[in-house]
Every structure is written in C-alpha cells, then in structure tokens.
Amino acid sequence: MGGRNARKAKRAAALPENMKPVHPGEQGGRFKPLDEKDLPRIHETALKALETIGLANAIPSCIEACTSIGCTISPEGRLLIPPSVVNECLEKAGRDITLYGSSPEHDIHLSGEKVYFGTAGAAVHMLNPISREYRESTAADLFDIARVCDTLEHIHFFQRSIVCRDLEDIREMDITTCYASIAGTKKHVGTSFSFADNVNETLRMLHLIAGSEEAWRKRPFVSMSCCHVVPPMKFAEDASACLEAAVRGGMPVLLLSAGQAGATSPATLACCVVQAVAEVLAGLVYVNAVKEGAPAMFGTWPFVSDLRTGAMSGGSGEQAILMAACGQMAQYYNLPSGIAAGMTDSKVPDAQSGYEKGYTVSLAAHSGANLIYESAGMHASLLGCCLESYVIDNDMLGAINRTVRGVEVNDETLSIEPIRDVCLEGPGHYLGHEQTLNRMQKDYLYPTIGDRENINNWIDQGSTDAVQRAHLKVQEILNNHYPENWDEETDLKIREQFPVRLEKHRMRPLEIS
Amino acid sequence: MGGRNARKAKRAAALPENMKPVHPGEQGGRFKPLDEKDLPRIHETALKALETIGLANAIPSCIEACTSIGCTISPEGRLLIPPSVVNECLEKAGRDITLYGSSPEHDIHLSGEKVYFGTAGAAVHMLNPISREYRESTAADLFDIARVCDTLEHIHFFQRSIVCRDLEDIREMDITTCYASIAGTKKHVGTSFSFADNVNETLRMLHLIAGSEEAWRKRPFVSMSCCHVVPPMKFAEDASACLEAAVRGGMPVLLLSAGQAGATSPATLACCVVQAVAEVLAGLVYVNAVKEGAPAMFGTWPFVSDLRTGAMSGGSGEQAILMAACGQMAQYYNLPSGIAAGMTDSKVPDAQSGYEKGYTVSLAAHSGANLIYESAGMHASLLGCCLESYVIDNDMLGAINRTVRGVEVNDETLSIEPIRDVCLEGPGHYLGHEQTLNRMQKDYLYPTIGDRENINNWIDQGSTDAVQRAHLKVQEILNNHYPENWDEETDLKIREQFPVRLEKHRMRPLEIS
C-alpha cells in the first residue's frame, strides 16, 4: 500500500510547464451561437444605431476628439458616428495586445481566439459560506482575495471583485483598491476608478512601483475596467474622463457596456447584442480618437433581468447565450475582448451556483472571447463574493479549459495500433499500455479540491462537500501566502505619497508570541 | 403590495404550450469540438478497425446474420466487418424515429439536431442529501424517481436510473424495473435487460398494457439500453441475444459502447472516439442484419478514468469534451443518437456537482446529439442517485435548453425602433416598453426552485440552499403525484401473469385513518 500511495503522490505532484494538460490561452471559438450570416447583419444594425440615434452626454473633450475624425452632433446634442468612422477605427484599433503581469510568467496575450479566465466584480458583501452570513466587504478582504487568486492555477488574471466598503473617501478607495490588488497578486490586475484625478494619481503610484514611468509604459500590469456608457446609448461623463486619462497614461481599457435586457437594453436578445455592440464600438471610436491603436478590450456585457422583478439574473440561460453571442461578435471583429460569465444568482456555493457557473462559463469560453471575467468567486448576481468559491471555481475553470483545449486529432492520436495491440496481442485492457502511461499527465487534469473518491473513502474522510474542503484550503492559503511584490522601502514611499488605507499589519502573518 | 404579488403570481403561473420559452427538441449542433476535416478521418479509422481487428465473441445468430450481409470471420474467430457493409448499413439505418410516450404529448422525435434531456443510470445507492447517507436502492425508489421525473418539465424522457437491489432474482428485477418505470411516468421509458427471455416476457407485459401487440408495435413506449459490446472490441453475449429480441419485438435499441479511456478504451481522446464509433457501428450493422431499418440509437458513451486510480471520472473536462465529440460524430452520420452527460463525481448535490453537470450537459446539448442521458439525478460517477437532484437539475436543464434555443435574429428581433423610442422619445429605459412585456414570458424562462431573490429576502426566507428547497419540492411531489397509467383490472392481470415485485401499497398515498 505504501508503494501505491507513493505512486499516487508522485502522479499528483506539480508538473513542469510543458507537461501540464492545460495552459492559459487555449484556443476557443468552437461554439457559434449565431449563424455566420447574422454577424454582418448585427454589425450593420449597430452601425445604423450609431449613425441615426447616436449617444447622449458626450463630454467636451470627447466631442472635440470624435468630431475631429468625422463624427457629428445631432440637433438634440447626441454624438452621431457615421459608419465610415466606425469602420476606420475598426481597422486602426489595437490588436494582438498583451496584458502584462507584474511577473512575466503571468503575461497574457490577447489574439485570435485565445481564452483566459479571470475574476471581476464590484460586490459589496463577503459571504461566509459556513455560517451563510453576509457582511460588508473591506480593503483587507480585497487583499485576501487577491492572494488567494494568486495561488490558483486556472485563474489567469485578477480584476478587483469587491468594493472596499470601509473606505468612504472615493480617492482613498480608488487608490487603495489598486494597491490591495497589486499587493496580493503578481497576475495582471484590472481595477476601476470613479474620477480621472484618481487615475492620474494611481498612475504615479504605478510608476513608483515599476521603477519609472517608462518601465510602467513598457509593461503596464494594471488595466482599467471602464463603464464608458450608461445604457441605453449615453456616455458616462466621469467614466469618459477616466477613459481619456487611462489611454493617455498607457493603461489598457476594458470598454464596458453593461445594459440590462428589458431594463436598460432591449428585451430581444438579438437587439441586446446590437445595443451592446453599438455602445462598445462608440467607446472604440472614442479611444482611437484620443490615441490611435491604444490597447482597448471589446467589453460587451449585456446582463439579463428577471422580468418579474426587474432584478438582474446573471445565472440564467438567457445570460449564458447572450454573452456567448457577444463573444462571437468580438471574434467577428477580431478585437481583443472580454465578456462575463459565472455570475450566479445563488447566495451560496451550492448546486445551483455550480451549474449556473458551469454552463455560463463553458459557453463563454468556447465562444472565442479572450477574457472571461467574473468567472470565479461571485454570488448573488455579483453582489456577493466568497473566498471559498474562488478555490471551488478554480477546479471548474481548469476542467472547462481542458474542454477548450479539445480533442487533438492527428496520426499519432488516431493510430489504431494500441487497439490492435490490446485486442490481438495483449491483456485485453489499456491500463498498463505505454500510451496510457505517456498520456496520463499530459492529457488528463486532476482537480485540487474536487472529490473523486469512491463512496467509502468519501465517508471515511468525513462525507465533506466542496465548501468544507475549500474552507480548509482557504485557511491554508491565507495563513501562508503573503506575496511581497515590492520591498519595504518602496512600500514606505507609497504610503508616504498616496492615501493607501490597507493596514500594514493585515499584510503579513500574525506574529505568534 | 397585494397587486404586485398578484401580478408576480400571474407571471409565474404555468404558460400555454405556444407561449413557453423552451420546448423539447430545440435545435442543437452549434458546438463543434472537432474540425470538419477530422470527421471523415475518424470514420475511416473506425472502418479500418472494424475491417482489420473486428470484434470477438459474436454469438452464432449474430455470425449468421452478419456473414449473410458480407461480414467474415477471422482466423482468431473475430467478426470482421468490411467498409462496404458498414456503409450500406449506414444508408439503410432507421432515421427520423420517434420515441413514444405512453401519453402522446411526451412523444419525442429524433431527427437532425433536435435535443432532448433525460435520465439514465444503474446506480446501486440512493443518497439522502440532508443526512449525507448512502443506502442500497430498491424497486420502490425507482417508482418514486419515475414519478418525480414525471412532474419535471425539462426532463423529456425517463431511462431507469437505479438497480433494484432488493430483488435478487434477475427475471423479477428485469420485469419489475420496467414495470416500476412505466407505472411512474407517462414519458418515454428506457430500460435494460440481462437476458433475452426477460425481454420477451416484458414485451408480453407491454402488449397487455398497450391493449394488444399491434398497439404496442404502433407506439412502442419503452426502449432498451443495450451494452452490446464489452470494450475493447468484443460483443457481449447475453446483451447480443437481448438486442435481437428487442429488434424483433419492435423495441427501439440504444446501442451502447461504454469503454473507459485508458482502461477499456485507448488513452488518447481521439482514439477513444474511434473505438466507440467502431463498436457502435458494429452494433448498427448487427441490428440492420437482423432487421433492416429497425430503430436504433447511436450510443457512443466513452467514459473517462482518473488514471491515478483507474476509477471512472464522469465529471471531468476530458469527459465533457469526449462526449461532445461523440455527439458531433453522430451528427456526421445523421443517425438518431444519445450520449451521456451530468455524471458528476461528487457524492452530494454541492457546487462541484453543479458545475460538473453544468459544463458536461451544456457541451453535450450543443454538440447536436439527440438524447442527453444521465442529465439529472446522478452522483458518485453514476453509483449514486438522489431525488432532490432531479428537482435541482430540472432547473439547470431548462436553462441549458434556453441556450440551445439560442438567439433569434430576424427583422423583428433586430429592429432598432425600440432603441430609438426609448432614447429619443421615451423614458430612457425599456421596463414598460410594449416589446418588453411581449417578450417577458415567451423569451425568458424562470426556475422552479432556483434562487433569484435579493439577499435580504433570501435571509428572510431562511438562507436556504438548493438542496433544502428541492427537499420540500420532493416531499410535495411524493405526497401528491400518483399517476395511474392503467386501470385496476389491468394491474391485477399484470400481477397475475408477471413477477412484479413492487408492492401495491407503495403505489398510492398512505391512508390516514
């Protein structure tokens, strides 16, 4: 039995990169919810909406930049964007962009149909899944979430997932949100800002951390999630100013249109896609009017409402198919893109949470969008966040990534020689066959906390569920994983110059005296 | 508040069929895990395996039937099937077949890429998800499972999901299994047999229930799941005899090849597909040699092993993509087909169970296979079954079916007039727009026990999870839903003539004195 356990342990040990069964950036795009012929129709309809309805509330600098490349202002004061301007911007837009990690092994390359999984959200609550209690989220929670995600292999980038409710001052909140995220993980970080001044101040902090502005601009390891529109078809004024600051400061921008079908977006799924595409194209025109080719991600995120109550339903089937259709549209434009999936309506990590995440994330991943945001940790239609769920969802993301990697068909994998060996010469099974042993690690992925025991072993080990096992794993990570992403001296400088409101003692292990 | 609740209740009430947002038999096939060019390669490789390796253990009647249409016997005694014979059988095979319900509204039509969800399994345990206890499954459990499934809208057919462990006599078990299933539901029933004599005896029972043999043959409402092979590449002898009895008796047959990758099937996913396709094609040749055009379903079910332990892992990513690839192969042949998904490794209906069911079922459903077996109720890689999980999974299946229905793109759904109305003329939102009200019920599906409450309501209602809510629903169904699928007199006749071992008192409500 000792020998068997030793073999099991060896097989379960960490693999070198080239032996791993899945990698960040597997090739998606095999799920096509829309007919090919519908893609240009949706594009043409979005163009018509931009040309004839346009967007309200463009700020003066937006009007100046956009009219200088051919947009006009309607009698009602709306920014009208002619098809020629959109098509020119589509040609010039930044493609094949890299989102840098603060450590290069976490760089992710957005091109073609490469798929990456990450977090996101603006939850206002943390869930304790053992007691089922919700409480307000804090800056310390954000740091903890970041370091949990830093350890999870199948979460490829980290966008901030909660609002620091303990910080009332918006400047302190914006800056601390970025600080807590980049202090907790070396993966690429996405964050968000309320005002352009806070973008500029944060950029100075990032220059300090990178070593210089030049070093930052060479490898910008933070991007900005920007709701540049308030659907339907209005620019968001403060977000517009943030967008300009980010573009000028070399920070990649996720252009987010987050309408809600039947509320701030049309009730038909097709027209929902049209409005989202139109709004994001407007953002793309805006970005390229400010700086041609600046890195921007196509972020069509139409949400679904439960039309009985008007409340968001992020876990519905309508949400899954709507988001996948948007992923396919992004591929039609061959733009770097990010969509959202994993936004369960359930308040706890239960079976409902699992299946809603399972089908929304898998269809999103196969749609060919590059970035799957919100794919771990979230509950209550994005209002809640749960540390244990990141650990649970990490196993799910690995398995879904395995489905994205797909089935390799070539002379070697197709060869029927193993069948012939086993049937005509061999023992009648493949267990000890050379090919089986070769394929075991490279082709097959093993979960971290996912249960594959037989029933008796599962009972012997305490009849646990995923939450109980994840809880132990979270405790282990929180007690042990304290990344030090910059030195003490840099941290002192940061804290002197910027209003960082994450207490230092929260950032290192408790000293046991 | 009364008015609002009344409106909510009205909106939540059952809809007439033509208003329902999803129907059985939505059109799948939009997920293509394999490249188009790989499909004929896999076919050619399977043909080569059938021609040069062939299958061992063909019974005399199989040899007689198959050699009469051109197969040969190798020096080792294996049945070799030349490509010409396979291709002829592919031409003649039954297509566009109907699986009848015992009530016509449950008929399902297998053609093209229509998708239906159903149960299956041969679990030996029932799980109580509240106490987390496993116990042996019984005939009374099977009847209860059938009547729970009878009430669940998104479960379209019922294949028996447990083994009646309380019955030791195989004849009693085979007959009672069929009886308990058809007594519990009016949906199409799939069952399984150990010996051909039991098939024939059950057929006589079905004639009695249908009214006559002719009536049975007109609307055969029971099909047989038949593991006609023992992978790799051997016929199963008793199952072969069952297959012949079913084909002659007018009972549709699911031709099941259930190898386990790395154990009884090759370790490369591509060659796993090849072996499964070859084995099912052998079954198809066999069926058509016995009776040309007899209804048979292409049942490529390669399972995945956890290669660390050799145990089956039905919830893995490898399983999801392998099964979807098989669904696409079935579509390549345009054969009526059934694959399996939903086979979680988890022992309880937890988050892991949810996500494993979510991604396996959604990718299977979109692959274009007609029947998705095992899609509800199962645990522990098919060894366990749970009543509450059927109720939970029913909501999941509805939502996944909504994603299969997809996004309708046409002049009406694409019209930007609602955007123009709302932006230029209207209130700035779509909530009261005529189109929103029209679409609310036809386009949006609402879960039965799935939680979409806001956090405070959820707390007020007891901070429940899906299992707790499903448990209440199961109790309600078990206490109230007693289908009477035939009259008392027929039941007496059945029990006089056949060894039905489901106690009569288990089939009606407890009398409270």
Secondary structure topology:
The structure is a homodimer of 513-residue chains.
Chain A: H1 2-12, E1 26-27, H2 38-52, H3 60-67, E2 72-73, E3 79-80, H4 83-92, E4 97-99, E5 108-110, E6 114-117, E7 125-128, E8 133-136, H5 139-150, E9 157-159, H6 170-184, E10 188-191, H7 196-210, H8 213-218, E11 222-226, H9 237-249, E12 253-257, E13 260-261, H10 269-290, E14 296-300, E15 303-306, E16 311-312, H11 317-333, E17 338-340, H12 351-367, E18 371-373, E19 378-379, E20 384-385, H13 387-405, H14 411-414, H15 417-425, H16 434-443, H17 455-460, H18 466-480, H19 488-497
Parallel strand pairs in A: 6-18, 7-20, 9-10, 10-11, 11-12, 12-14, 13-15, 17-18
Antiparallel strand pairs in A: 1-6, 2-3, 4-5, 7-8, 15-16, 19-20
Compute the separation of the termini of chain A in Å.
Answer: 41 Å
Helix coverage percent of residues of chain A? Answer: 40-55%
CATH architecture of the domain at 91-405 in chain A: Alpha-Beta Barrel
Find the count of extended strands of chain A (DSSP E, 2+ residues): 20
The residue-averaged pLDDT of chain A reads 95
* Rg of chain A (C-alpha, Å): 24 Å
What is the global morphology of chain A?
Answer: globular
